[in-house]
Amino acid sequence: MASRLAQVASHFTSSSSKGLLKDEVVIVTGAAQGIGRSCAIIFAREGAKVVVSDLDEKKAQIVVDEIKAAGGEAIAVGGDVGAEDFPERIVKVTVDAYGKINHIVNNAGFTYDKMLHTMPDDSFDVIMKIHVRAPFRLIRAAAPYFRVKGNTENRSIVNVSSTSGLHGNVGQLNYAAAKSAVIGMTKTIAKEWGAFGVRANTVAFGFIQTRLTQAKEAGASIVIDGKQVALGIPGGGKQADANKPVPGVPLGRGATPDEAANAVLFLISPLASYVSGHTLEVTGGAGI
């Protein structure tokens, strides 16, 4: 019995030292900061070769440098995920560098909040473009590297949704519609690509402490189609105070980006080898 336990312990130690994602290639969009940055760093720590993609290539390169300094492997790819040439370009760069693609994490996005009766077409259209059309086009471009019969490697797609996509949210009709669409898209991928051993899942985040949930008064913004779009929520960020429990969240607090990224790690890792078509809610218990 003692010998058997020693063998199990030895096997566990050996597997752990290799990392959950050893030699797997992961594309992460919106990876220069927040949840995307945490995903890139944690995946690299688990042995993955990470393609760090972001609108701001200089910030993406900073993440790459951080990964390399820790002994990991990564490359930066700058660009707008909504650009017409983006999918083919990032797929080519990835395959040229690493020869394959194991996972795509469609994380890039932002909010452009308006009440329904005041929402202009462009604020609706751009959110759908970035959160629905862009992930669809990237996944489609990568199809030749996923739809491969007999490939037994760990391969998956993870699309980022939100509790707004599950329950709706005041002032976020565009965002809620897009994040709801992502769930249907993911389930369809799971059904179409399951025969190739590819899993597809969605992660729906609740309150995560990022620039999208900080106070809008802090002045964070992003330039989209030549327009300055303010990020955050009016009076936001107060929930990050550990001494002030977050109403409606049983755990009483917002999550860190690392906690959010760990949920994505689970979904792309072999630990979730029989999980597909699922929407994992990372909410601290909110919405139950």
TrEMBL record:
Matches recorded under Gene3D superfamilies: NAD(P)-binding Rossmann-like Domain
Pfam families xref list: adh_short, adh_short_C2
Molecular function terms, GO-annotated: oxidoreductase activity, acting on the CH-OH group of donors, NAD or NADP as acceptor; quinone binding
GO biological process: fatty acid biosynthetic process
UniProt entry tagged with the keyword Transferase: no
Domain of life from the UniProt record: Eukaryota
Keywords: NADP, Oxidoreductase
Keyword Transmembrane: no
Family matches, as InterPro entries: NAD(P)-bd_dom_sf, Sc_DH/Rdtase_CS, SDR_fam
Family: Belongs to the short-chain dehydrogenases/reductases (SDR) family.
Protein name (Swiss-Prot/TrEMBL): Short-chain dehydrogenase/reductase SDR
Organism: Schizopora paradoxa
